[in-house]
Amino acid sequence: MKSVLLLILLSIQVTYSQNAKPNKEVERLVKLGREHIIESALKEINESEVPKIKKDDFHFITVKASDQRILVEFGYNVLYLPKNTSYYSSIIVELPSKNVSKSSESNGSQNTAFYNPTAEHLRVINLILNPNGKNSDIFHKGTPYSPTIIYEEEKHYKVDFSSRDPYLGGSFSSEEIDKETGEILSTISGHYEPAPIFPEDTIDQEEFTEIKN
Prior knowledge:
Elements: E1 4-5, H1 24-32, H2 34-46, E2 60-65, E3 70-75, E4 78-81, E5 85-95, E6 99-113, H3 119-129, E7 148-152, E8 156-165, E9 169-178, E10 184-192, E11 209-210
């Protein structure tokens, strides 16, 4: 059920040479703006995908640039996985190299697909996250948010929530919820400790800036 890296997921912070000259293609793309960069990234994903995916298929898109590369992340804040399904949870495109990385969530299947929620998916998500019908923004569209992953089990749903920052720590919880009533059957929760910071961690780190327009 845990995320599976299909390709090497590129880190937001990596060690690099301070002597590297700014990448001219990165500078050119940044000048063309966020929307142009997103369309370029989508083009790379769609080179091998049928049917084609669109911006609106995702809950959020982030664009971050260093002086050497651009990382475009397409992601989901909420996923529902019926039994025997597997969906991509995050896609990162690096420009100008055109490298594409995908992570996924699985519930008993190795045939991973892009997430396209059905009416039944939305019914289950609302049963769990919006039982009173008063939450108009359960997907937090437009903003990266701590992911909630819902797995269908035989008699209940398993709901995993995780909020984690490598340097700040975070929290997690896992609930079992009755399929018929929406009643919480069990809950497990805990916290992540911050990772230790070593002197070498602050040396020669690649710095990214979010591109918002």
